[in-house]
UniProtKB/TrEMBL annotation:
It comes from Paraglaciecola polaris LMG 21857. This is histidine kinase. It is an enzyme of class 2 (transferase). Pfam families: HisKA. It catalyses: ATP + protein L-histidine = ADP + protein N-phospho-L-histidine. Residues 13-72 form the Signal transduction histidine kinase dimerisation/phosphoacceptor domain. GO terms for molecular function: phosphorelay sensor kinase activity. InterPro entries: HisK_dim/P_dom, HisK_dim/P_sf. Its EC number is 2.7.13.3. CDD domains: HisKA.
Amino acid sequence: MNNDEAAKIQKLIHNVRNPLNSISLHAELGNMLLEGQTSNDALQNAFTVILQQCRECDRVLGDIRKLTTSETP
């Protein structure tokens, strides 16, 4: 693996970690909102963000897969 490929992979890993952190934060928020018996709108927003970030992780992981399958031996 050359330096360009390693840099691309590092960037993609970083791009997966960001949405994972957001998922974790919004899941915690959802738990806190449930404990506080908040409005359904606030809960729905927390879960919407979680779903969006899951889709972003899936997209970036697809980019990683493409990068690894496009290499020639």
